[in-house]
Amino acid sequence: MAVLIGGFAFDSHVEGRITYYYRNRTKADYLAKSGIEVARMLMIKQKAVDEMGEDEEPDEDDRWFDAAKRLNQGLAVRGLKEELGDGEIVLYIVPEPARRNVNQLREEDWERILEVSNVPEDFWPEIIESLQDWIDTDDEPRTDGAETEDYYSTLDAPYMAKNGPLDTVGELLLVKGFSRAVLFGGPLEEIEDEEGEPWMVTGIEDLLTTYGDGKVNINAASHRVLMTLPEVDELIAGAIIEEREGVLLGEPSDEDTSFESASDLLARIPDLTSEVTPFITVDSSIYRITSIGRVGGVERRIWCIAEREQDTLRFLRWREE
Fold first, then answer.
1. Which domains are delineated in the chain?
2. Are 97 and 284 in contact (CB under 8 A)?
């Protein structure tokens, strides 16, 4: 009888924990979806912020004003938190041109990207030329590249080279030379560092996109992305971020410190020349929205690519993790 009672109590405990988890997962899922609606609202609110006069003051109770203002200035919103019930929403809204368009990169752009990601130079020719072969429309392989007949058809699970632009960044894993370590970061087993350990790379996935016209939004790009631009090293990338965020002002200020144009960037960052101008922009209509719902230790995440068309959002890609 004691064994039966103990078994029943254990089963009840397990079922209770499972029910608790599924209840929180459902709540977290709805919180994540609510975050997408918050992002939609902030996109619409940009118009009201843009139409405000210089002498107008925002409503003190408007907790969304600052986030909408950042988006209106071309800046990113990262880590916006909103408590709701017994959970919370964490929201990221980043202009997608804050990344480099993988389909429009030149060879010298790739060299800077691979350098920033700590990929050894010996790997560069195969990676760059294999991608060029994957995208171009002919079937002639480059010296270090690969096409269907000479490489992809010989694999254990053969497939054909696309001979067209990439639809997603993850598609790079199909291209010769691109491993998960190169794309997402981690150890390169083929090479060792000075201490005999596998060579570590930081990954390139966070630097790339397949959306936009190829120009980088300097008001939203990360430090690593900025370093892939011509003339931009680690110090200049840091200076760009400090300028656009108003760090040098010291005290919190309502002053708009985002860059208004390429010429504004050159005026405020004297170390740069017009060489960088063709690769940058301050405008964005496409955004990467990441919404995280958290309840009782359970987390659900939704991310999407959305294009703003006046007062509406058109979703180009949607993924629930």
1. 2-99+284-320 (3.30.1300.30), 118-203 (1.10.40.60)
2. yes
